[in-house]
UniProtKB/TrEMBL annotation:
Signal sequence bounds: none
Places the protein is found: Cell membrane
Family per record: Belongs to the natural cytotoxicity receptor (NCR) family.
Gene: NCR1
GO biological process: immune response-regulating signaling pathway
Gene Ontology cellular-component terms listed: plasma membrane
Protein name from the UniProt record: Natural cytotoxicity triggering receptor 1
Lineage per the UniProt record: Eukaryota, Metazoa, Chordata, Craniata, Vertebrata
Transmembrane stretches, start-end: 88-106
Length: 135
C-alpha cells in the first residue's frame, strides 16, 4: 500500500463519461486490492474540450490529451473488511449453535442419569427397610 502512480488511457470522451472513478488491482482471480482514492473526471462540452481533475499532463499527442494521470493512495475499504467481519460473526454464531446442540442433549442425559441413580438408591433403601421390618 502506498503511493502508486497510474495512467489510464482514455479515448475520446463525452459528457456521458464524467463521474467519480476508483482503481482496483487484481493479484489473482480471487483477491482484489483496496480501492484507490476517488478520482473525479470532469468533461465539459465535446471530446475536444475536456477537463480532467486532477491532471498536470500536457501533450500534443491526440491520445495523450485523453490520458488521466493521478497519484493515488490505497485505503482499506470498510466494505471489504465488513465482509470479513460478517464471516467471522457467522462462524461464531455457527459455533455457538453447535455447542448448544451438543450441550443440550448431554445436559438432558446427565439429568436423567442422576434421576435414575436417585431412584435406584431410593428403591434399595426401601428394600433394606422392608427386609429390616420382616421377622
Amino acid at each position: 500500500y502506498g503511493n502508486i502512480q497510474a495512467e489510464f488511457p482514455m479515448g475520446p470522451v463525452s459528457t456521458a463519461h464524467r463521474g467519480t472513478y476508483r482503481c482496483f488491482g487484481s493479484y489473482n482471480t480471487h483477491a482484489w486490492s483496496f480501492p484507490s482514492e476517488p478520482v473525479k473526471l470532469l468533461v465539459k462540452g465535446d471530446a475536444g474540450d475536456t477537463t480532467f481533475e486532477p491532471t498536470e499532463h500536457t501533450s500534443s499527442d491526440h491520445w495523450d490529451s485523453y490520458m488521466l494521470t493521478t497519484e493515488t493512495q490505497f485505503q482499506e475499504d470498510p466494505v471489504l473488511w465488513g465482509h470479513n467481519a460478517q464471516n467471522l460473526l457467522r462462524i461464531g454464531l455457527v459455533f455457538l449453535v453447535l455447542v448448544a446442540l451438543v450441550w443440550l442433549p448431554v445436559e438432558d442425559w446427565l439429568h436423567r442419569k442422576k434421576l435414575q441413580e436417585r431412584a435406584s438408591r431410593a428403591s434399595r433403601q426401601e428394600c433394606r427397610r422392608f427386609r429390616a421390618q420382616s421377622p
